[in-house]
Amino acid sequence: MSWLSQVVADFFAEVDWWYFATIPLFTGVIGWLINWSGLWMLFSPVQFRGVRIPGMRELAGVLPRKVQEVPGILQGGVGWQGIVPARAAKMGSIAVDKAIAKLGTPAEFYQQLEPDRIAEHIVTVFRPEIPQLVDEVMRREHPRLWRDLPRPVREAVVERVQQQLPAVVGRVTDEIGVHIDQLLDPKIMVIDHFRKNPALVVRIFRDFGQRELDLMVTFGFVFGFLLGIPVAFLDHAIGTWWALPVLGVVVGWVTNALGMWLIFEPTEPRRILGVKAHGLFLRRQEQAAEVYAQIIAEDVITLERIGDFLLDGPRGDRTRAMLATALRPAIDRAAGPARAAVRVAIGADRFDTIRESVAQEAVGRTLTPFRDPAFSAQQADKIRVLIARRTKELPPRDFVEMMRSAIKEDEWMLYAHGAIMGAGGGFLHYALFAALGRAH
């Protein structure tokens, strides 16, 4: 009998088949649980859940960098927040750098919204407000003059302003278009919105990737089971109580790593051992692009939010000043031939104050139609088409980077979680059979 035949004969004579055969089943179930709970860790909870510990915030500054990355630690808490929502702002930043910045400049987004239609909408909404606007400013700045003017004269002033409104608004929307690259910062818009709405980032993954994520959980069992076969042989060869927990660490770590690889790699189709391999998310880049574009167009880069950013964002003062400059000539023209006489009657400074007041009052009202949800929704489809087209054109590596950015640096937590669960599974298997008196 050869040496190999003797080894095989000894193995069959000595092995406890129940103990041996259940190892792959255990590792398969543990692999499934690892990937299932790993997905929970990725997305839940959306907001931090835990307890604040006095002194933890101060202690966090001296802890290892990897420990500081655990959600809640730097804020002085012990608990958990889903990795994706915890890194929502970071994903927004990288999404802009890797994708949205390549999808189009602010000027392209603005042109996609059809400024002429915006101008028409502004005129339609703003025209009925002109009488009240002029009346309010004049009553505040020069009530006696306004009161003493005959009604036909006052109505003529209002009518002149209304007649000039389309040209004025057209000039305003043109000015916005010319300066939009300086007034609008999509990166700040996206980061700020993702930070305030972490559930939105979760939705991006869930809406187009749920099928792949579910498949990742299923493959957790497959990977765990297959890895459990060599583990069973190694455990039998080592023959000590600590073998299964130690090997379980390897199984847990590798199972999670393979699950992440399955979703995102390889970025280009290629054959591995004769089998075509391609990242699950990347196989459906076109469908993913449509879902991603829909969310960005409906919730992030909308006409409504552009209007908010232009007036109330970090560059809002510049927008208001630009719009006021565009509106001032209209007030001069509204006075018509009487402009010089009115200027003399009330004084140059007073006339300039009235003109400035009307311009400043008109600024906010001019962009109010931007904030019209119904009109914003109508325009959203144009943004969606642009983003979808450009996202489909992204190189696969950039697409992966955009989607994986929220979790890339924190994947070690998932792998560590898998390793801990793998060790726990090994201890559980050994303890169960030890209680039955069948552990080696």
UniProtKB/TrEMBL annotation:
Record field: transmembrane: 17-43, 213-234, 240-264, 412-436
Signal sequence, renumbered to the chain: none
Coiled coil: none
Keywords from the UniProt entry: Membrane, Transmembrane, Transmembrane helix
Protein's name according to its UniProt entry: DUF445 domain-containing protein
Lineage, broadest ranks: Bacteria, Bacillati, Actinomycetota, Actinomycetes, Propionibacteriales
